[in-house]
Amino acid sequence: MASVSIKNIVKHYDKTPVIHGIDLDIADGEFMVFVGPSGCGKSTLLRMIAGLETISEGTLHIGGTLANDIAPAQRKLAMVFQSYALYPHMTVYENMAFALKLAGHKPAEVQAAVERAAGILQIAPLLKRKPKELSGGQRQRVAIGRAIVRKPEVFLFDEPLSNLDASLRVQMRVEISRLHSELKTTMIYVTHDQVEAMTLGQRIVVFNGGRIEQVGTPHELYNAPANLFVAGFLGTPKMNFIPGEVVAVDAARVTVRLPGGALLGVETAAGAQTGDRVTLGVRAEHLSLAAPQHTDNVIDVGVGHVEYLGDLSIVYTTLDGMPDMIAVKLPAEAAPLHAGARARLHLPPSRCQLFNSDGRALHRNTVEFGNPGGFV
Ligand SMILES: Nc1ncnc2c1ncn2[C@@H]1O[C@H](COP(=O)(O)OP(=O)(O)OP(=O)(O)O)[C@@H](O)[C@H]1O
């Protein structure tokens, strides 16, 4: 096992920069996920760690050793690709044994390592088959098995589940998590799927345009996003963003005027000044229908349309003076709402967040979201 430390890493292709000076420390044994939209540079950074891309500037240390110029095969890493990259003419056993044989291990050692990995991944009955005789999920297990037998110090995963259907992805997600608990090896996992990022990562790095937007536990990123990009990237439906103006600030709360004139109290923000233009962010699951006697932190909305999802409904509502819809998650039975109806929504002061005109979160440090305890 090994830590990975990245200092001021830059990547350019010809003269075009795609990674703009990244600092990141990944602890020994940590499960770190890189997530971000297409083209943000997450695969390029992973490939630089693997040694498949050169590092234009900056330093990479693996297990405390400077690794910039170490050949990929000497970095003690194993990479699992989206495309599986299995040898088609070899059996599952031969695919898994290949690297060990090449490294000169004795046949008995090779056999023990392959059987151990096949046992962990529950593919022992498949060892005599060729890749073309396997399902996508089985092929990906073999690709992971091939990585395990090498006992790497760091596993690198590049979108390994993207070619699988939705239910298999869920199953493999659970297996990769289990694998990490069992092996306790450092894992770096690239995905553009925010659910994979949230469910697998002990910490997540959110990338955008070749830069890091935020690093944190899934809980920190979801509940205390550093900026509008992270707030909007994680969560389905996306966090609601409502433009507003600060009209009063006191020790306990910031009062914001929203489109249509409603006044909202926000308890989580600090650093706002009266007159500031801000964006108020609130997640769909934190909104509720206001009881008739409630008058504080309530907005009047029109119902646009209702998505019935069985256990809950997502109600898309409109606020006068605002083009974007406000999404509300409600228990299905509690939402006898139909398009064209009016509704009153309650926005809890402890769940609303403010972002300044640069998109940066105005967090009050003392606000606790009840972090159950992250990795660091
Ligand atoms: N060999 C290359 N030559 C020139 N530009 C490249 C090369 N490889 C990647 N890029 C560019 O670098 C940027 C980052 O690419 P990268 O593949 O790391 O993104 P990504 O976040 O992994 O995206 P995706 O999820 O689509 O794979 C992109 O703008 C891409 O076009």
Automatic annotation (TrEMBL):
GO terms for cellular component: ATP-binding cassette (ABC) transporter complex, substrate-binding subunit-containing; maltose transport complex. GO terms for molecular function: ABC-type maltose transporter activity; ATP binding; ATP hydrolysis activity. The keyword Phosphoprotein does not apply. Transmembrane segments: none annotated. Residues 4-234 form the ABC transporter domain. CDD domains: ABC_MalK_N. Keywords: ATP-binding, Cell membrane, Membrane, Nucleotide-binding, Transport. The keyword Transferase does not apply. SUPFAM superfamilies: MOP-like, P-loop containing nucleoside triphosphate hydrolases. It comes from the Bacteria. PANTHER family: MALTODEXTRIN IMPORT ATP-BINDING PROTEIN MSMX, MALTOSE_MALTODEXTRIN IMPORT ATP-BINDING PROTEIN MALK. This is sn-glycerol-3-phosphate ABC transporter ATP-binding protein UgpC. It comes from Duganella alba.
